[in-house]
Amino acid sequence: MKEHKIGYYFIVMASVVIVLAGIKSASVIIIPFLLSLFIAIILSPLYNYFKSKSIPDIVSVTLVITVFILFLALIAKLVGNSVHDFSANIDTYAQKLAQYYQLISHYTASFGIEISTEDIANLINMKQAMKFATSIIQSMGAMFTNGFIIILTVIFMLLESQYFVKKVELADGHQETMAHIERIFSKIKNYMVLKALISLFTGAIIWMSLYFLGTDYAFLWGVLAFMLNFIPNIGSIIAAIPAVLITLVQLGGMSALAVMVLYSVINIVIGSIVEPKIMGKGLGLSTLIIFLSLMFWGWLLGIVGMLLSIPLTIMAKIIFDANQNTQWIGVLLGTGENIELNKEANK
């Protein structure tokens, strides 16, 4: 009996490897599909609002897509100019930062610790950090080079959304199945829409704060903060690095310290207080799972996979939590806070 179980587990693991290999080889198709799916989920409340006003489906979709394209074009124009100017001046910023390397080297030498400026430069490589930050935004922009396909897919998804659950009900014939699927979709939609709004709010705060402080390319760092806010804890740290370094070489140490405090306060207030209160603690992921998700989805789908890693993992967690046979996987993915709450409730 044990041999049969072992053979079964090997078959399952081999199947998973084959599926993952297929996903990785088909990433050119899968990445635009996932982007379309997330865009459709985020835009669905606006589409449903227009429909609730008795506006025909085609007109509702046209209005939603027009608003989205105008918003995207405005962002692309502003970000494109910032990325171009920043890339042209990145060597100048790196040279200015080298002066701080010398100060650090002299400071450590006063304590009898000899550290060369080259060692510090290798440890704090501003050029690489900046290139990584801009490559994240550029890679997302590159995904929209097939913008026509993505927009077309979003349109079809929005039009299909109202009939999908009804099709499942008709095919399955069970009312419970439909209700179950509807709950899963509702949770996924609520998470994605709320997360997008919170991330947009976070990016706007970062942008306005850096703008009033006088940091160069404040809008660029606001967009980066918006995108990386989808990655809890780790994302805010990555988003802060280029903004802090730019402020350091441009405005000095005190201003850079102020930017560090700004990012820390925003991360604590929004990430630890606002999000759990709005979205519920049950949707949290453990820090280890967040890190492993970044590695896994980044390996599977590249930089775009890293940005979508947490939404994809949250979607998987919602699906696992909805099924009694797979709830244990959802518990392993979670923070463990619900376990403590359940213990207190049972006392």
Automatic annotation (TrEMBL):
Q: What is its main location?
A: membrane
Q: Which GO terms describe its biological process?
A: transmembrane transport
Its subcellular locations are: Membrane
GO terms under cellular component: membrane
Keyword annotations for this protein, in alphabetical order, are:
Membrane, Transmembrane, Transmembrane helix
List the transmembrane segments.
7-23, 29-47, 59-79, 136-159, 193-213, 219-249, 256-274, 286-308
PANTHER family (alphabetical): AI-2 TRANSPORT PROTEIN TQSA, TRANSMEMBRANE PROTEIN
Hey, which family's this protein in? Belongs to the autoinducer-2 exporter (AI-2E) (TC 2.A.86) family.
**Protein name, please?**
AI-2E family transporter
